[in-house]
Predict the structure of Protein-L-isoaspartate O-methyltransferase.
Amino acid sequence: MRSPDSRHSLRPGLMQGIGMTSQRTRDRMADRLARQGIADRRVLEVMASEPRHLFLDEALAHRAYEDTSLPIGHGQTLSQPWIVARMTELVLEEAPGRVLEIGTGSGYQTLVLARLVTELWSVERINALHRRAGERLRLLAVHNARLRLADGGHGWPEAAPFEVILLTACASALPEPLLAQLADGGVLIAPLASRDGEQWLVRVRRQGDRFEKQRLERVRFVPLLEGVIR
Ligand code: SAH
Protein backbone atom coordinates (compact mmCIF):
# COMPACT_ATOMS: atom_id res chain seq x y z
CA MET A 1 0.00 0.00 0.00
CA ARG A 2 1.13 3.53 -0.70
CA SER A 3 1.66 5.90 2.16
CA PRO A 4 -0.93 8.71 2.38
CA ASP A 5 1.73 11.20 1.28
CA SER A 6 2.66 9.50 -1.96
CA ARG A 7 -1.05 9.03 -2.65
CA HIS A 8 -1.67 12.75 -2.41
CA SER A 9 1.19 13.54 -4.72
CA LEU A 10 0.01 10.91 -7.23
CA ARG A 11 -3.68 11.62 -7.22
CA PRO A 12 -4.02 15.05 -8.83
CA GLY A 13 -2.08 14.08 -11.93
CA LEU A 14 -3.81 10.76 -12.27
CA MET A 15 -7.28 12.13 -11.71
CA GLN A 16 -7.08 15.08 -14.07
CA GLY A 17 -5.14 13.33 -16.79
CA ILE A 18 -4.24 14.95 -20.07
CA GLY A 19 -5.34 14.50 -23.66
CA MET A 20 -7.05 11.15 -24.15
CA THR A 21 -7.50 10.63 -20.41
CA SER A 22 -9.15 13.98 -19.72
CA GLN A 23 -12.60 14.81 -18.39
CA ARG A 24 -13.76 15.81 -21.87
CA THR A 25 -12.91 12.38 -23.20
CA ARG A 26 -14.87 10.77 -20.39
CA ASP A 27 -17.85 13.03 -21.04
CA ARG A 28 -17.78 12.04 -24.71
CA MET A 29 -17.81 8.37 -23.68
CA ALA A 30 -20.85 8.97 -21.47
CA ASP A 31 -22.65 10.79 -24.31
CA ARG A 32 -21.92 7.87 -26.61
CA LEU A 33 -23.21 5.38 -24.02
CA ALA A 34 -26.44 7.37 -23.73
CA ARG A 35 -26.83 7.26 -27.53
CA GLN A 36 -26.18 3.51 -27.41
CA GLY A 37 -29.19 3.13 -25.13
CA ILE A 38 -27.81 3.36 -21.60
CA ALA A 39 -30.58 5.23 -19.81
CA ASP A 40 -29.66 5.04 -16.12
CA ARG A 41 -28.23 8.45 -15.18
CA ARG A 42 -26.42 7.00 -12.16
CA VAL A 43 -24.40 4.68 -14.39
CA LEU A 44 -23.59 7.46 -16.86
CA GLU A 45 -22.51 9.80 -14.08
CA VAL A 46 -20.21 7.27 -12.43
CA MET A 47 -18.61 6.28 -15.72
CA ALA A 48 -18.17 9.95 -16.63
CA SER A 49 -16.32 10.61 -13.40
CA GLU A 50 -14.22 7.50 -12.72
CA PRO A 51 -10.74 7.11 -14.30
CA ARG A 52 -11.03 4.05 -16.58
CA HIS A 53 -7.52 4.78 -17.92
CA LEU A 54 -6.01 3.78 -14.56
CA PHE A 55 -7.17 0.19 -15.15
CA LEU A 56 -4.91 -0.30 -18.17
CA ASP A 57 -1.17 -0.45 -18.69
CA GLU A 58 0.30 2.95 -19.44
CA ALA A 59 0.84 2.09 -23.11
CA LEU A 60 -2.90 1.52 -23.60
CA ALA A 61 -4.26 4.20 -21.26
CA HIS A 62 -4.85 6.65 -24.12
CA ARG A 63 -7.36 4.20 -25.62
CA ALA A 64 -9.30 3.67 -22.39
CA TYR A 65 -12.42 5.60 -23.44
CA GLU A 66 -12.76 4.08 -26.91
CA ASP A 67 -15.76 1.92 -27.74
CA THR A 68 -13.78 -1.30 -27.44
CA SER A 69 -12.49 -3.98 -25.09
CA LEU A 70 -8.75 -3.83 -24.36
CA PRO A 71 -6.13 -6.34 -23.20
CA ILE A 72 -5.13 -6.38 -19.52
CA GLY A 73 -2.52 -9.16 -19.77
CA HIS A 74 -2.75 -12.91 -19.04
CA GLY A 75 -5.01 -13.28 -22.08
CA GLN A 76 -7.80 -11.31 -20.39
CA THR A 77 -9.64 -8.15 -21.40
CA LEU A 78 -11.21 -5.07 -19.89
CA SER A 79 -14.76 -5.10 -21.25
CA GLN A 80 -15.89 -2.33 -23.58
CA PRO A 81 -17.61 0.59 -21.83
CA TRP A 82 -21.05 -0.32 -23.22
CA ILE A 83 -21.12 -3.79 -21.67
CA VAL A 84 -19.87 -2.47 -18.32
CA ALA A 85 -22.64 0.12 -18.39
CA ARG A 86 -25.31 -2.37 -19.51
CA MET A 87 -24.43 -4.92 -16.83
CA THR A 88 -24.35 -2.21 -14.17
CA GLU A 89 -27.81 -1.07 -15.29
CA LEU A 90 -29.08 -4.63 -14.95
CA VAL A 91 -27.61 -4.86 -11.43
CA LEU A 92 -29.30 -1.57 -10.44
CA GLU A 93 -32.68 -2.86 -11.64
CA GLU A 94 -32.61 -5.21 -8.67
CA ALA A 95 -33.19 -4.41 -5.01
CA PRO A 96 -30.04 -2.83 -3.64
CA GLY A 97 -28.21 -5.36 -1.56
CA ARG A 98 -25.35 -7.79 -1.61
CA VAL A 99 -23.63 -8.19 -4.96
CA LEU A 100 -21.07 -10.82 -5.97
CA GLU A 101 -18.92 -10.32 -9.06
CA ILE A 102 -17.00 -13.22 -10.63
CA GLY A 103 -14.00 -12.04 -12.68
CA THR A 104 -12.46 -8.93 -11.06
CA GLY A 105 -9.97 -8.60 -13.95
CA SER A 106 -8.68 -5.03 -14.04
CA GLY A 107 -11.13 -4.00 -11.32
CA TYR A 108 -12.91 -1.39 -13.46
CA GLN A 109 -16.34 -3.05 -13.38
CA THR A 110 -15.76 -3.57 -9.65
CA LEU A 111 -15.13 0.16 -9.22
CA VAL A 112 -18.25 1.18 -11.14
CA LEU A 113 -20.37 -1.25 -9.13
CA ALA A 114 -18.80 -0.25 -5.82
CA ARG A 115 -19.81 3.37 -6.39
CA LEU A 116 -23.45 2.32 -6.87
CA VAL A 117 -24.18 -0.63 -4.57
CA THR A 118 -23.83 -0.95 -0.81
CA GLU A 119 -21.76 -4.10 -0.49
CA LEU A 120 -19.72 -5.90 -3.08
CA TRP A 121 -17.66 -9.08 -3.20
CA SER A 122 -15.44 -9.84 -6.19
CA VAL A 123 -13.49 -12.98 -7.06
CA GLU A 124 -10.60 -13.36 -9.53
CA ARG A 125 -8.66 -16.55 -10.37
CA ILE A 126 -5.39 -14.93 -11.60
CA ASN A 127 -3.28 -13.63 -8.72
CA ALA A 128 -1.46 -10.91 -10.69
CA LEU A 129 -4.78 -9.37 -11.79
CA HIS A 130 -6.32 -9.78 -8.34
CA ARG A 131 -3.42 -7.94 -6.71
CA ARG A 132 -3.25 -5.11 -9.22
CA ALA A 133 -7.02 -4.57 -9.03
CA GLY A 134 -6.71 -4.37 -5.24
CA GLU A 135 -4.02 -1.71 -5.50
CA ARG A 136 -6.08 0.40 -7.90
CA LEU A 137 -9.22 0.17 -5.79
CA ARG A 138 -7.30 1.16 -2.66
CA LEU A 139 -5.80 4.13 -4.48
CA LEU A 140 -9.32 5.21 -5.45
CA ALA A 141 -10.53 4.81 -1.85
CA VAL A 142 -13.01 2.02 -2.58
CA HIS A 143 -13.93 0.66 0.85
CA ASN A 144 -17.08 -1.36 0.18
CA ALA A 145 -15.61 -4.05 -2.09
CA ARG A 146 -13.94 -7.21 -0.80
CA LEU A 147 -11.65 -9.05 -3.20
CA ARG A 148 -10.64 -12.70 -3.12
CA LEU A 149 -8.26 -14.85 -5.14
CA ALA A 150 -10.24 -18.03 -5.88
CA ASP A 151 -12.08 -20.02 -8.51
CA GLY A 152 -15.28 -18.01 -8.73
CA GLY A 153 -17.23 -21.06 -9.80
CA HIS A 154 -17.51 -21.82 -6.10
CA GLY A 155 -18.87 -18.37 -5.31
CA TRP A 156 -18.27 -16.86 -1.86
CA PRO A 157 -20.25 -19.17 0.44
CA GLU A 158 -19.56 -17.29 3.72
CA ALA A 159 -21.02 -14.07 2.31
CA ALA A 160 -24.09 -15.67 0.63
CA PRO A 161 -26.92 -15.17 -0.12
CA PHE A 162 -26.56 -12.45 -2.74
CA GLU A 163 -29.28 -10.38 -4.39
CA VAL A 164 -27.18 -10.23 -7.54
CA ILE A 165 -24.36 -12.40 -8.88
CA LEU A 166 -22.60 -11.01 -11.94
CA LEU A 167 -20.21 -13.01 -14.14
CA THR A 168 -17.78 -11.08 -16.33
CA ALA A 169 -16.48 -14.26 -18.01
CA CYS A 170 -18.52 -16.59 -20.22
CA ALA A 171 -19.75 -19.87 -18.75
CA SER A 172 -20.74 -22.89 -20.84
CA ALA A 173 -23.04 -23.99 -18.01
CA LEU A 174 -24.16 -22.01 -14.99
CA PRO A 175 -22.17 -23.17 -11.94
CA GLU A 176 -24.49 -24.83 -9.40
CA PRO A 177 -22.82 -23.21 -6.36
CA LEU A 178 -23.60 -19.77 -7.78
CA LEU A 179 -27.27 -20.60 -8.28
CA ALA A 180 -27.35 -21.99 -4.73
CA GLN A 181 -25.90 -18.72 -3.35
CA LEU A 182 -28.67 -16.57 -4.86
CA ALA A 183 -31.18 -15.04 -2.47
CA ASP A 184 -34.81 -15.84 -3.16
CA GLY A 185 -35.89 -13.35 -5.85
CA GLY A 186 -32.23 -12.64 -6.66
CA VAL A 187 -30.67 -12.76 -10.11
CA LEU A 188 -27.58 -14.12 -11.74
CA ILE A 189 -26.44 -12.07 -14.74
CA ALA A 190 -23.95 -13.88 -16.94
CA PRO A 191 -22.65 -14.39 -20.45
CA LEU A 192 -23.57 -17.95 -21.38
CA ALA A 193 -22.35 -19.88 -24.41
CA SER A 194 -25.06 -21.60 -26.43
CA ARG A 195 -24.46 -24.92 -28.21
CA ASP A 196 -23.65 -23.22 -31.49
CA GLY A 197 -20.87 -21.25 -29.79
CA GLU A 198 -22.72 -17.93 -29.64
CA GLN A 199 -22.65 -16.01 -26.38
CA TRP A 200 -25.76 -14.48 -24.84
CA LEU A 201 -26.10 -12.33 -21.78
CA VAL A 202 -28.69 -14.12 -19.63
CA ARG A 203 -30.55 -13.20 -16.48
CA VAL A 204 -31.56 -16.07 -14.23
CA ARG A 205 -34.03 -15.23 -11.48
CA ARG A 206 -34.45 -17.48 -8.46
CA GLN A 207 -38.03 -17.99 -7.32
CA GLY A 208 -37.84 -20.43 -4.42
CA ASP A 209 -36.45 -23.59 -5.95
CA ARG A 210 -37.19 -22.47 -9.51
CA PHE A 211 -34.76 -20.64 -11.79
CA GLU A 212 -36.20 -18.63 -14.67
CA LYS A 213 -33.76 -17.86 -17.47
CA GLN A 214 -34.13 -14.93 -19.83
CA ARG A 215 -31.88 -14.20 -22.83
CA LEU A 216 -30.93 -10.54 -23.14
CA GLU A 217 -28.30 -9.73 -25.77
CA ARG A 218 -25.50 -11.16 -27.87
CA VAL A 219 -22.14 -10.54 -26.22
CA ARG A 220 -18.50 -11.54 -26.40
CA PHE A 221 -16.48 -12.42 -23.29
CA VAL A 222 -13.38 -14.40 -22.38
CA PRO A 223 -14.25 -17.85 -20.97
CA LEU A 224 -14.89 -18.71 -17.34
CA LEU A 225 -12.04 -21.07 -16.44
CA GLU A 226 -11.38 -23.39 -13.52
CA GLY A 227 -8.66 -23.26 -10.88
CA VAL A 228 -6.41 -20.53 -9.54
CA ILE A 229 -3.17 -19.14 -11.04
CA ARG A 230 -0.87 -17.98 -8.25
N1 SAH B 1 -14.72 -7.19 -15.22
C1 SAH B 1 -13.37 -7.29 -15.73
C2 SAH B 1 -13.36 -8.17 -16.95
C3 SAH B 1 -12.17 -9.04 -16.95
S1 SAH B 1 -12.23 -10.37 -18.13
C4 SAH B 1 -12.80 -5.92 -15.99
O1 SAH B 1 -13.55 -4.95 -15.89
O2 SAH B 1 -11.60 -5.78 -16.24
C5 SAH B 1 -12.85 -11.70 -17.13
C6 SAH B 1 -12.07 -12.04 -15.90
O3 SAH B 1 -12.65 -13.22 -15.34
C7 SAH B 1 -10.60 -12.37 -16.14
O4 SAH B 1 -9.80 -11.58 -15.32
C8 SAH B 1 -10.50 -13.84 -15.77
O5 SAH B 1 -9.24 -14.20 -15.21
C9 SAH B 1 -11.62 -13.99 -14.78
N2 SAH B 1 -12.09 -15.36 -14.57
C10 SAH B 1 -12.30 -16.33 -15.50
N3 SAH B 1 -12.73 -17.45 -14.91
C11 SAH B 1 -12.80 -17.19 -13.58
C12 SAH B 1 -13.19 -17.96 -12.43
N4 SAH B 1 -13.57 -19.22 -12.52
N5 SAH B 1 -13.13 -17.36 -11.23
C13 SAH B 1 -12.71 -16.08 -11.09
N6 SAH B 1 -12.36 -15.30 -12.13
C14 SAH B 1 -12.40 -15.86 -13.36
